[in-house]
Task: structure prediction
Amino acid sequence: MVEKSVAPALELRAIDKRFGTVHANRSLSFAVAPGSIHGLIGENGAGKSTLMNIVYGFHRADSGEIYVHGRRVDLGSPQDAIRAGIGMVHQHFMLVENFTVLENVVLGVEGGALLAGGLARARRELEKLACDYALAVPLDTVVSELPVGLQQRVEILKALYRGAQILILDEPTAVLTPQEADALFNMLRRLRDEGKSVILVTHKLREIMAITDRVTVMRQGVIVGEVVTATTSPRELAEKMVGRAVLLRVEKKLAQPGATLLAVRDLEVRDRLGVARVKGVSFDLRAGEIVGVAGVSGNGQSELLEALAGIRLPTRGSITLQHHDLVREHLGPRERRALGLAHVPEDRLRMGVVTNFSAEDNAILGYHDRAECTRGGWLDRAAIRKACEGKMAAHDVRPPLPSLRIAAFSGGNQQKLVLAREIDVDPRVLLVGQPTRGVDIGAIEFIHKKLVALRDAGKALLIVSVELDEILGLADRILVMNAGEIVGELLRADATEEKMGLLMAGVKSEGPA
Amino acid sequence: METYTLIVLTLAATIRVATPLLLAAIAGMFSERSGVVDLGLEGKMLGAAFAAAAVSAATGSAWAGLGAGIAAAVLLALLLAFATVSQRGNQVVAAMAINIMVAGLGPTLALAWFNLGGQTPQLDGPGQRFTSLVWPWASTAAEHPFPGLLYAQLLSGHNLIVYAAAALVPASAWVLFRTRFGLRLRAVGENPHAVDTAGISVTGLRYQAILISGVLCGVAGTYLSTAASAGFTRDMTAGKGYLALAALIFGKWKPYPTLFACLLFAFTDALASRLQGVALPLVGVIPVQAILALPYVLTVLLLAGFVGKATAPAAIGVPYAKEK
Result:
């Protein structure tokens, strides 16, 4: 087994792709060795997904060639890619939610016009696969009833059942706890040892370092580097991704918490179907501290945040701010803002901005009736524009064009503008949901610095994030949520990734922290 | 005895009224399961009713009429598929356009071709209509109220399309839940992205589903003009397409519950015609208008009460585009 003499499992030569005026991939070439895990890293919009969609036959490259095990292939559709032995696990699972695992796996490879025979055959084969790769999944369970970790396993089984030799995973750990991610990585290592090739597409440096053999770095549609993982460092990779030196972790002094500004007691929130999403949560938020709420997505953090912001009505409990019980007095988002509670929502595109509005209009959303925006009951356009220009300058929003539609800005610049809007009114308490979701590394650095500066100015910040690194980097105190409850409270100094991972998975900590 | 006979006759009428509803509802089931809202049931049925009556009148053959009815509905379905699947147009708008177009086109063509005030000629020649099939010994059996009358009225005495519609229910259930096509059809209505990544053509599947809907609407329309009545008249579908859609939703997009919903709607309709002018105990004679409104009032009540629990195919109404 001399590695040099073996043809690469997958080789791309000079792949080029444009979408209108956007040059998504510029003459990209790289090769993946058989029996290896290859990382593909880059910021949002670097062209990773486009490249992988070309490999999976979703898009056709404008020019360039693709070779699989030394043979040139023409990948015009996913069917071609499947035939060539390429499997893909998408970031958003491609599963039919109300089908069973078995039905999902056979979809597209039923093996005959009638289902019964194909299903029986698939069952036998899947039981064998599950055995070989330690990939056990209950075959007759409806997919929507499975936890996300198992749903992802179904996606991997789907690819293997189709005979994939090359497995592409797009941001596979976005929805997993650290422990689930570790389990996934073990599984991938086993696949590699069986001779399969794995391509891991991610923006998380930690994962690249943990599991890949080689890593290709993309920036703005070009490959800016390819290195053996063992010879590089996260710092070097981050610099390559961004094109300049970046701080991976914000420098900050020890917190000096002051008076309690927001007190939450026994808060319960139910969803539309009456299911309790937040189950009797209590905590204090003090001036001059950042409290991070960690947890796997969907464990009640969103509902908690919305209840605090006044978007959702709690069914029980109290939220005290400035001697007002926000729940009992039925204070809505507007009254809460007036009391000094600002909110940067989790889902920027759905709740943070109106995508069809200009930047300047977005910069006053919710504050449009304040004196500085109006004159005699009418919007004062000149003042609004001027205010927006000021915010853009102060928060390095690029391009600094108030009249441009917000959708034309990058995620990072949108988020900076939303943050500018919420802190411009000098709130006492700031709630931030997913501060840097869909935000590039450069802007992450800026936003993190800003949040720490707010803390140092004596504000109380509550940050909800599914990114563990972000919580560990920012928070002074950490609340871990699982199934709607706070299962652990840790001071930053006591928090380790492992401890938090166990808490996120629902293993309660012993004794009060 | 009198009451018993009335009940049996009402049930027999229910079956006849339910037939076009059921055909259209199952037609809608196929396209809606594939993710395409089928508001065009009404237009496809009406177009088929006209084509079937016109061709039957011209050729003297009900079977030629059936062929023409199916062809017309399939053409309309193709138009709908092109607009909504290929061109990703709004499904509601496209379907309503077809409904409105057909409502005007039928009578206009009828006027131009037959000059009978927007109707087709009466189909009274031999073989121009689908007539009732009388089963062996039916007339003898009818003399014995039980079970003879049931045999004569409920099993015997319907035309071929009624029996075909009855057979359609188990057949469509089998296709939907036991075949590869059914699995893919259900998948494409829930998550077309999953179907696409599995290497199956979303467009191809949706075209097939819409074409099946066209064929079944063709049969339903043919039934209206060449079996239930003798010729085409203006707006003869009278909202049956929408009622079928309501039955489909009430039946949660499943064959047997949909059959039940169609029978229920048809029963209120049959009951309404029986109740006209009849003095009931306590209430007396109910105004005709109130009776005629009964099926629709029931529909509104049922849908208001039950539709909340019905979950539509997740991807329904959304044109499929690869980019998210």
Observations:
- The first helix of chain A runs from residue 48 to 55.
